[in-house]
Structure formats: C-alpha cells, structure tokens
Amino acid sequence: MSLLCCRFWVSGRVQGVFFRASTARVAQRLELTGYARNLADGRVEVLACGQPDNVAEMGAWLQHGPPASSVSELTSEEVSVERPARFTTG
Predict the structure, then answer these.
(1) Hey, which residues are catalytic here?
(2) Is residue 1's pLDDT more than 80?
(3) Per residue in 4-45, pLDDT tens?
(4) Dist CA 27 CA 36 (whole Å)
(5) Alpha helix (H) ranges present in the chain?
(6) Fold for the domain defined by 4-80
(7) pLDDT at 90 over 90
(8) Minimum mean pLDDT among 1-5, 35-39, 44-48, 86-90: which range?
(9) Residue 63 has what DSSP assignment?
(10) Beta strands of 1-90 (E only): which ranges?
(11) What are the domain boundaries of the chain?
C-alpha cells in the first residue's frame, strides 16, 4: 500500500472562517493524517498523508475550502516525513 504526504499552503481569507476545523473533517472522511495550522503571515499550512487519491481529493477541496473562506492561492509539494498518527489542528 503506497502512501503519500503532501504539504499545502493556502492563501486568501482562510483564518477565522473555520478553515482548520473544516479541513480536519475532510481529512477524517478521507482517512488522512497530518495537520492544519495557521501561519503568522495569514496562510494556513496543511500536511495531508494517506492514499494518493485521497491526498489529491484533499488538494482539490483546499482550492475552495469551506463556504466562508475565499482561497486566492494554493501551493503544494510532496514531502518525505514520518506519517503522523492522526490529523490535528493547532
């Protein structure tokens, strides 16, 4: 079973709009581990690890995020990290 970890950076109106909590719910549905955290520059950083198709689906969801958000840019990179045991926000 091949697993993939990808780090995403989401820019726009993504803090204070339940972006991290919504991302965690999507991650749980997709059986992904990792995290979503606010960055000091106003972006949200997301690490998503799991089945490649599920990581890709997370990336597609991050392009628009929850209804109250407004994503202006999404960048990502595949990373080689130890897979976290669960998905956290913080």
Answers:
(1) 20, 38
(2) no
(3) 999 999 999 999 999 999 999 999 999 999 999 999 999 999
(4) 10
(5) 19-29, 52-62
(6) Alpha-Beta Plaits (3.30.70)
(7) no
(8) 1-5
(9) T
(10) 4-13, 33-38, 44-50, 70-78, 87-89
(11) 4-80
Evaluated on CA atoms 21, 22, 24, 29, the torsion sign reads: positive
As a residue count, the chain comes to: 90
The two beta strands, 44-50 and 33-38, are antiparallel
Residue pair 24/87 in contact by the 8 Å Cβ criterion: yes
Question: Among candidates 84, 80, 63, 82, which has minimal Cα distance to 72?
Answer: 63
Residue 2 in this model has a pLDDT that exceeds 90: no
Is-contact 4 49, C-beta < 8 A? yes
